[in-house]
Design goal:
With 405 residues, the protein is an alpha/beta fold. The protein folds into three domains: 163 residues, HUPs (Rossmann fold), CATH 3.40.50.620; 48 residues, no CATH class; 175 residues, Orthogonal Bundle (Hypothetical protein af1432), CATH 1.10.3210.10. It is 54% helix and 8% strand. It has a six-stranded parallel sheet with strand order 3-2-1-4-5-6, sandwiched between helices. The radius of gyration is 26 Å and the shape is elongated. The N and C termini lie far apart (57 Å). The chain binds adenosine-5'-triphosphate (ATP) and nicotinate mononucleotide. Nicotinate mononucleotide binds next to strand 1 and helix 4. This is Probable nicotinate-nucleotide adenylyltransferase. One of its GO terms (biological process) is NAD+ biosynthetic process. Its EC number is 2.7.7.18. Pathway: Cofactor biosynthesis; NAD(+) biosynthesis; deamido-NAD(+) from nicotinate D-ribonucleotide: step 1/1. Belongs to the NadD family.
């Protein structure tokens, strides 16, 4: 097994780190890549304003998640849990104990590579792991790497490989922290990491969460969910805007509802129930045990309480899972957009898609009926509000006979 070890202060992790991780996995053919946030970097003092380690850990986890290879890329808390300075030699000794058969590769950028012989116990480091070095800027070429590579090979018998990053990003966390303090720098960050920074007011960002612009709102939403859900959320956002344009609803509200509709999707039942309690959401028996029914309610509460969304957005999010009788146009739009956004792929989706732009009520009824049928086939309980939605539409003359539209 080939294991890559990418240590860093990750204060914060940026697109330069991401590019290096992505390329190293491919070029080295890694079976696993461990991102290891340092507790106390041995060679530098953590600057003032450095967030507590749990934030650096959480941001590193978002970077790992963004690589969409959960079996390969993992974050290790080995150094955060160890007392004292985070010496790489100690980390490698520990990993060698854990994986005695594995081939270890230490990943590092130019700055670290050129000073490697000055690290604590370089003999152990270079005995236990190969070194994979990459340039941080376009200027970091072979003439910089070659002398150090020759020296490390000769002096320590080191195994060194240098790789070129196709997606090289010339940025350091130091410069990024400065930019963030001036309200800039988002282009160097993964949206999920940027969202985490905004939501926690890290690095001197003082964003007013109740007045975020669209990219900031998207970033916050991203930071609350797993990367694999982001495409669906983006698809729902754009579909909701198209439907709002078609049906004369407010496009900005549709967009914001789409962005936030799944923001609490990854909370567990206990967390969902605590939020319902906090915001006074009354629940019936089914809702109290069905976590899937709760994220629409808690998502609506967070949209309003944390992001200052108006009642129209609140109620669109609140009803986007069960639907209900007598829905507003925006409520219908979010429900249908969630169902038909471009990433959805199920039998019947094309019919629903075309219906959505011909007759919104018919599309809503078809969505509701499809859900009821699917839940019944899977022997899962259907929420009473969903039946009420269907019955209300039918009693108001909405029909969806096959082949009529
Ligand atoms: N833009 C980048 N491209 C490639 N590698 C990078 C880049 N930035 C940092 N690295 C490498 O990532 C590892 C971890 O770096 P670190 O977390 O300290 O980031 P940094 O940007 O160098 O931070 P700081 O500015 O706070 O020193 C190091 O090996 C470093 O060389
Ligand atoms: O062990 C050492 O002496 C040592 C000296 C310098 C750097 N390191 C490690 O190199 C990694 C990159 O460091 P940094 O500051 O660029 O985040 C990080 O994991 C550090 O702990 C380790």
């Amino acid at each position: 097994m080939k294991i890559g070890i990418y240590g860093g202060t990750f204060n914060p992790p940026h697109l330069g780190h991401l590019a290096a991780a992505k390329t190293a996995i491919e070029v080295l053919g890694l079976d696993r890549l461990l991102l290891i946030p340092a507790a106390i970097p041995p060679h530098k003092v953590l600057p003032e304003g450095t967030p507590p380690p749990e934030h650096r850990l959480s941001m590193a986890e978002k970077m790992a998640d963004a690589l969409l290879r959960p079996k390969v890329v993992q974050v290790s808390t080995l150094e955060l849990e160890r007392e004292g300075k985070s010496y790489t030699s100690d980390t490698l000794e520990e990993l060698h104990r854990q994986y005695p058969e594995a081939e270890l590769w230490l990943l590092m950028g130019t700055d670290m590579f050129l000073t490697l012989h000055l690290w604590h116990d370089p003999d152990s480091i270079l005995r236990l792991a190969g070194v994979c070095a990459f340039g941080r800027t376009e200027q970091d070429g072979e003439e910089l790497f070659a002398p150090q590579r020759d020296f490390l090979c000769e002096r320590y018998g080191a195994k060194v490989t240098t790789i070129t990053l196709p997606g090289l990003v010339d940025i350091s966390s130091t410069r990024l922290r400065k930019l963030l303090g001036q309200g800039e720098g988002r282009e160097y960050l993964l949206p999920a990491v940027y969202g985490h920074i905004l939501m926690n007011g890290l690095y001197g960002t003082h964003a007013d969460l109740k007045h975020l612009d669209i990219p900031e709102l998207r970033a916050c939403s991203c930071s609350m969910v797993r990367q694999k859900r982001v495409a669906h959320i983006r698809g729902t956002e754009e579909e909701a805007v198209r439907l709002a344009r078609r049906w004369g609803a407010d496009q900005t509200l549709a967009r914001r509802a789409g962005i936030l509709h799944d923001c609490t999707k990854y909370l567990n039942l206990e967390e969902q129930l605590a939020l319902c309690e906090k915001y006074g959401v009354a629940l019936d028996e089914l809702e109290r045990s069905a976590v899937k029914l709760l994220h629409s309610k808690t998502g609506a509460c967070i949209a309003k309480a944390a992001f200052g969304e108006p009642d129209e957005v609140y109620s669109a999010i609140f009803w986007h899972t069960t639907a209900k009788e007598n829905m507003t146009t925006l409520e219908k739009i979010l429900y249908v957009a969630d169902y038909i956004e471009p990433n959805r792929d199920f039998e019947g989706v094309e019919r629903l898609r075309s219906l959505a732009y011909q007759d919104l009520d018919k599309a809503l009824l078809l969505g509701v009926e499809t859900t009821i049928q699917e839940m019944e086939e899977r022997k899962l309980p259907v929420h009473s509000r969903t039946f009420k939605a269907r019955d209300w539409l039918r009693s108001h003359g909405v029909t969806i006979e096959e082949g009529t539209e």
